[in-house]
Structure formats: structure tokens, C-alpha cells
Amino acid sequence: MRTEEGDAALSSDAPHIPEPMVFDLVRPLGVRQGDAEVNVLTEHSLRTGDTEWAPEFEFGLFDDFAIEFELPFDNLRLSEYKLGLQGTIGTGFNNHFIHGWQMIGYHDRDTEKYSVDALYLAGYRFNSEISNFNMIGARRDDMERDGHFVGLFNTTWFYDYSQDLTFGIEMNNEFREKSDWTYLLMPQIHWDITNHATLQFGVGLSQANRKETNWLGTWRMIYAF
Predict the structure, then answer these.
(1) Nearest by Cα to 129 from 219, 18, 221, 20
(2) CB 12: neighbour CB atoms within 10 A?
(3) What is the model's pTM?
């Protein structure tokens, strides 16, 4: 039974809920002012050999409110600028439940277009081993008149095997017009190297509209101060 958790990759410090690897948070819900984190997410396509990676800096501006700056790269080319904001609404159910919100702005350097995500966040700790975190919302893929809305849903289930080791499975979905559906399924392992450093890694698959499957090797290195 897990009795204590490292703090580098939590989606919530109270209740203790791990953070999804692919669609991560702007620090945990319930962030404290001055908390900071740097991390790098890397996704390598086992089919094409292409690599997407993104260094991030996350900072708690105030209690329950954090900001994030991210620079996504396609191989060695900087593709986007991202700015994220996140707030905590509160807890419930005897401190087993926590929820909040997140907004992310994107600027595509190739198309010069802007897009925005708006998400509701909710996590629940069932017992000392099992927890779940969900993100649901929408993306405006272009802020101009001809832009469209994309439905977003991410759910991740976690099993805390020991104090330092967590197993999870993450499902990330995007729903577009005309029943277009893109999903990513990512089994993952979280290893708390120290109370400040966590390595997350996994191999999963993604598919758009039932077309060719893309297998991905993914990892995220996190250091929280």
C-alpha cells in the first residue's frame, strides 16, 4: 500500500492524484504560490521516425492559480508558442475529489493562426491505490471566422504500486465535425526518482478516423522546485 507520494508529477497534492503524461497540467491543482516546475515531453513515432518534443516552464503565480510557457518542436523546428493558465475551484467528498479549469492559447508559426483550449478538470482518489483524472472541454482551432470547434476529452486511470512507482493508462480524444475522431491510448509508468524529479514513459498508439495506426514511444522528465 502506498503511504506517501513524491510531489513532482501530481495532478493534485490534496488529494494525491498523479498527473497525466501526454496532456499534462499547469502544476497540480491546489498549487501554492511560488511553486515551479520544468519538464520536457518527447513523442517519437515508431512508424515515421519523427520526434515531437516540448520544453515547459510552470509557475504558481498565486495559491490555486498557475501559468505555463511551452515551446513545441517538430524534430528541430520550433512549430508553436503556447501559454497556459490554470485555476483550482476546490475539493469535496471528504477531500477525495478536486476540480478546476485550464485555458491554453496556441500560436502556429507556419500558418500564423491562433487557437484556444478551454477545459474543466476533475480528479478523484478512490483509495490508497486507485485514482482517476479527467479533462473535458473544447478547442477553437482558428480564431478567425472560418475556425471550427473541436471537442476534447482526456481520462487517465492510475494504480499506485509503491511509494515510487505508479502505473497508468491515458486516453486522449479529439472530436471534430462529420464524426471525425482522433484518439491516443497511452499506457504509462511514473517513477518518482526523488521528491522533486519524476520520469514518465510509455508506448502507445494513435489513430485518426480509423486510418493508419501510429505507434508512439513517449516520455516526460519533470523537475519541481
Answers:
(1) 18
(2) 28
(3) 0.92
Show Cβ contacts of residue 85 under 8 Å, excluding neighbours closer than 6 positions.
Answer: 26, 65, 66, 67, 68, 102, 103, 104
Provide the pLDDT for residue 143.
Answer: 85
CA dihedral sign of residues 8, 10, 13, 17: negative
- The position carrying cell 495506426 is 213
Contact between residue 102 and residue 85 where contact means Cβ atoms under 8 Å apart: yes
- Torsion angle defined by CA atoms of residues 39, 40, 41 and 44, in that order, rounded to the nearest 10 degrees: -160
Distance CA 147, CA 130 (A): 39
What value does the mean pLDDT take over residues 62-70? 97
Task: Determine the Cα angle at 222 with ends 219 and 225, to 5°.
Answer: 180
pLDDT-based confidence at residue 14 (cuts at 50, 70, 90): confident
Residue with the bigger pLDDT between 5 and 19: it is 19
Q: Rg for the chain (alpha carbons), in Å?
A: 17
Contact 207, 215 (CB under 8 A): no
Residue 70 backbone phi and psi in degrees, to 5: -140, 145
How many CA atoms within 13 Å lie on the side-chain side of 95?
6
Give the separation between CA 145 and CA 50, rounded to whole angstroms.
Answer: 32
Q: Which of 21, 6, 20 lies closest to 219, judged by CA?
A: 21
Cα(202)–Cα(220) distance, integer angstroms = 9
Q: Which residues 6+ apart lie within 8 Å of 30 measured at CB?
A: 12, 13, 14, 64, 88, 91, 98
Distance CA 170, CA 183 (A): 10
